Amino acid sequence: MNLTLFIPELTLTVFAILVILLDLFVRQKRVLAQVSISGLVIAGVITIAMWGNSFPAIFNNMLAVDNFALFFKLIFLAVAFLVILASVDYTSRFARFQGEYYALVLLSTLGMMLMAGAADLITLYISLELTSISLYALVGFLKDGKSTEASLKYLLLGAISSAVLLYGMALIFGFTGKTQLGEIAMVIQTMPAQTLLASPALILGMVLLIAGFGFKIAAVPFQMWVPDVYEGAPTPITAYLSVASKAAGFAIILRVFFSAFGQPEWLSLNWGMIFAVLAAIGMTLGNIMAIPQTNIKRLLGYSSIAQAGYLLIGLAAMGFSAGADTAGRSGILFFLASYVFTNMGVFIAIIAISTKLNSDQIEDYAGMGKRTPLVALALTLGLISLIGMPPAAGFMAKFYIFSAAVQHNLLWLVIIAVINSVISAYYYLRVVKVMWLGKPASEEKISQSGTLKLALVLASLGILLLGILPGYVMRLAEFAANMRLY
Q1: What average pLDDT does the segment 286-291 reach?
Q2: 197 within some domain
Q3: Which of its termini does the chain have fewer beta carbons within 10 Å around, N or C?
């Protein structure tokens, strides 16, 4: 066992404990944010140093350390970094619990990093619960009516989804006698199709896995928690949920369905079609439900459901390719990388505006182009990226994922996606119109702290760079998409 390959995770564990201990002794709580950011940077540097090397799986092949896992680890660390930067001033709302807040962000990031490398059903479930329990607590940190309600709903529905997921894993284990993904694949591939079809345990197990994972990525019909949780949670945690939690869900779906259920071809075609149908329904329902929303966090909640639908197109393409190429997988990876900067930029701008206004109502954003032009410009850029318009990152993200679908005879799904992108432009541009053309309630300028400005600048630069110069990140995504089988 090579513990040196586990150093990024150990680093986050040590810094999470350090933050909790420091909270007992330091009065200047900004130190806690600085320590948390230091831990994330150190873990990120170590992860980057590991990139491109061929490492064995650790802990008896239960945890993969391939480029696929490293790619997602960097995504989670980047999201946590931006969330903590954006939280420095926001944490004054729960001043007594800042140590717990930062520690839980680090621990949930740790759980997501473990999820990205999980090559065994047991590791997968443990890492998933570490992430989920941390997030349940973070959602309720404001301790007001909406936040408490959101946390309770998230906890109850999350517990049900975990039970469904665990039941699916039990069926897979009962059918194959294995928990390691590579060994499950070997058992399935050596069995004749008649045997697989004669026993419904495997198919039912896969359906339950899709349902359990569908909750984590906010896919229809498992999205019922999203609007209320997004509205009630602290805004930095809403941003964290919308990006990191979704990326972690897709990371583990990609690994499980590619490694364990990628062959035989008829099997991958069937689950590919399931994902295609869920994508079509998710995009349509998310966009239609977003249109009448007046609260910007609820609007982005339904937007997140629609974005999950676009990402599911990549999973459908992966199923239809039967593992023959990496177009679907690399498209999802690039989409998630661009989505990190896009959604974080949008939510950081919302933190900057809503905290000053003490309101999340879209009508109260009137005239923000005059009161805080740079924040309004950054929010506009993020919303344009969510639509999928150039030169923002969202355009290239959709281009890659739609191209993969077209290559595998899913033109009908791409047509539905394009129509939905046009629909989404209505409610995204409505926010832009209110900000730039609406009459401000006050002429008073809105100022932001240095840390919030830094987070907003980093996110905006990411949106532009991935939109204008996507080649480098796309090559990294293609490299990471070549997963090893364990």
Answers
A1: 93
A2: no
A3: N
Angle in degrees, 0-180, between the axes of helices 67-87 and 450-468, rounded to the nearest 10: 140
236-256 pLDDT, tens digit per residue, is: 999 999 999 899 999 999 999
Total domains in the chain come to 1
Tell me if 380 sits within 8 A of 418, measured CB to CB: no
SS3 52: coil
Q: Within 10 Å of residue 2's Cβ, how many Cβ atoms?
A: 11
- Could you tell me the two tokens for 305? 């459901």
- Determine phi and psi for 58, rounding to 5 degrees: -115, 170
Q: Is 444 left (phi over 0), alpha (psi -120 to 50) or beta?
A: beta
Read off the pLDDT of residues 423-471 as tens digits, 9 standing for 90 and up.
999 999 999 999 998 888 777 888 788 888 899 999 999 999 999 988 8
Range of the domain at 325: 262-486
Tell which residue, 237, 231, 174, has the closest CA to residue 204.
174
Question: Cα angle at 285 between 412 and 383, to 5 degrees?
Answer: 90
What SS3 state is found at 63?
Answer: strand
